[in-house]
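I am still learning, so would you mind making up any protein sequence you like and the tokens describing how it folds?
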Amino acid sequence: MVSVGVSLGLLAGLCLAGWREMTTGALRSEKDVGAYSQLPILGSIRCLRTRRAAPAKALGLAGMVGRQLGRAAIMSVGARYYIGRL
């Protein structure tokens, strides 16, 4: 019974997300802008990848987990500092 509820909830969530994606008025590409404005496009700004992202991808899952654990440790130290000051 629980699996049916989980499956229906997942299906409903996916349908709702798809519906919202199709009905929003967001302009995501040059074609969207051209179709909406009926004006020629003079230029566009490309999405640049930073050099910092490349080493994290090279490490894979271990690098991602290590980075998240490091961030959690930094946040916990900050929380202890501020809670201790109360």
